[in-house]
Design a protein that fits this description.
Elements lengths: L1 E5 L6 E8 L16 H5 L5 E7 L2 E14 L3 E9 L13 H16 L8 E4 L5 H8 L2 E4 L2 E4 L1 H12 L4
Helix pairs in contact: 2-4
Length: 164
């Protein structure tokens, strides 16, 4: 799926694509990534996705791991922006939002019954407030959070430019 990433300094829009990651795409932790994507890639039944610019497809802007629970609920195990997209000096503005919106879209495609459009995940404690404020995620208990179908529709419209 194609998405627009916004360059922080210039506000220039770059076309990126979210695709299934192949073994050769998986970044190394030693290169500044917080998760060990090489180990996560080996997880059975997990879907590992990457986001990269069309103009530089070998440079990962972010990664995400999704699994399906109970054959009908999408669970976002991990989401991470590339080290060059961290903090105030990040290169692109909306990498995480684009990945999260894509996970929400998958929740509409895969989700059944009460889980249609429902995305669940566990947040790091220090990111709970960010997920709540920036993406509308709701704290369920401890650090478990979810995005309901109405919020998911807004994120999909905002980041993927798809109206559900």
């Amino acid at each position: 799926m194609k998405v627009d990433l916004i360059e922080r300094k210039t506000k220039k829009i770059h076309t990126a694509e979210i695709t299934i990651a192949k073994s050769k795409d998986i970044p190394f932790k030693k290169d500044g990534w917080k998760f060990n994507w090489r180990n996560l890639y080996k997880t059975d039944s997990a879907l590992i996705l990457k986001i990269s610019l069309l103009e530089s497809p070998n440079v990962m802007e972010g990664m995400m791991m999704l699994t399906i629970l109970f054959d009908e609920m999408v669970y976002m195990d991990n989401v991470e922006v590339a080290p060059h997209n961290y903090g105030k000096n990040k290169k692109f503005e909306n990498v995480a939002g684009s990945l999260i919106a894509f996970a929400c879209l998958e929740a509409f495609i895969i989700g059944k019954n009460a889980y249609n459009g429902f995305l669940s995940f566990t947040s790091k404690t220090e990111l709970i407030e960010l997920y709540a404020q920036k993406y509308g995620a709701i704290l369920a208990m401890n650090s478990r959070m979810y995005i309901d179908s109405e919020i998911a529709k807004k994120l999909i419209n905002q980041y993927l430019k798809i109206k559900l």
